[in-house]
Specification:
Blueprint lengths: L16 H17 L4 E6 L5 H9 L3 E7 L2 H14 L8 E2 L14 E5 L7 H14 L5 E6 L1 E2 L7 H13 L6 E2 H10 L6 E5 L3 E7 L5
Parallel strand pairs: 1-2, 1-4, 2-3, 4-5, 6-7
Antiparallel strand pairs: 5-9, 8-9
Length: 211
């Protein structure tokens, strides 16, 4: 039996089944690592299912979804409205590689399942942009499949990586060591790594204090 209860898809909303499988484990981590109040910027919100689930569960936070796709923006609006939450802002058209970002400050930045379905330059832009808007100790949270020491952590991740690269050679499952180098180069402390279901990981980076 699945541990989740599928939500009805609202009119105008897109649906990703994986969201219903991963939302509760992610929410458990977010409860522990996000600040008690403030603004959470979600990068590449996709269908909008995640923000529509997290916002009601963490009502003291303000949530700012974003995405570079107009179709996704419509879906985010639909899911946000269906959630009934009043702490979700209207979604922003935001491409991480187009600087400066339209958000100039956030207390946390969230990016779920993005860095492997985008060029490496998008990962670089994500860390650089997040570093520019987060305060000291501000959280950058990533979720998805990752390599360790250049090796896949499961055969299923390797097959997924191969499918991604067949679709676009610039895409692919990223290595934790490369992300660590990128993170420290723009002012983040070494990331905290948490095992998640289905061979995924949660990565929590905190903005280093100035000086």
């Amino acid at each position: 039996m699945p541990f989740f209860d599928p939500q009805p898809v609202p009119h105008g909303g897109l649906h990703a089944a994986a969201t219903e499988r991963n939302r509760d484990p992610i929410l458990e981590v977010l409860r522990a690592v996000l600040p008690p109040t403030g603004l959470v910027l979600e990068i590449a919100s996709g269908t909008g299912q995640h923000v529509a689930y997290f916002a009601p569960a963490l009502p003291a936070l303000r949530w700012q979804p974003s995405d570079p796709s107009s179709a996704h923006l419509e879906s985010i609006r639909a899911w946000s409205a269906a959630s009934g939450a009043d702490n979700i802002a209207s979604p922003l058209l935001l491409d991480v590689e187009r600087a400066p970002w339209s958000v100039v400050h956030a207390d946390a930045v969230l990016s779920i399942n993005m860095v492997h379905i985008a060029p490496w330059t998008a990962a670089e832009a994500l860390f650089r942009g997040a570093a520019g808007i987060l305060p000291a100790a501000g959280v950058l949270y990533l979720y998805g499949p990752f390599k360790r020491g250049g090796q896949h952590t499961a055969p299923s991740n390797q097959r997924f990586d191969e499918r991604l690269r067949d679709e676009d050679p610039r895409w692919g499952v990223r290595d934790l060591d490369e992300l660590a180098v990128l993170a420290t180069s723009v002012g983040f402390e070494p990331g905290e790594i948490m095992a998640m279901p289905a061979n995924n990981l949660s990565l929590v980076y905190r903005r280093a204090p100035p000086g």
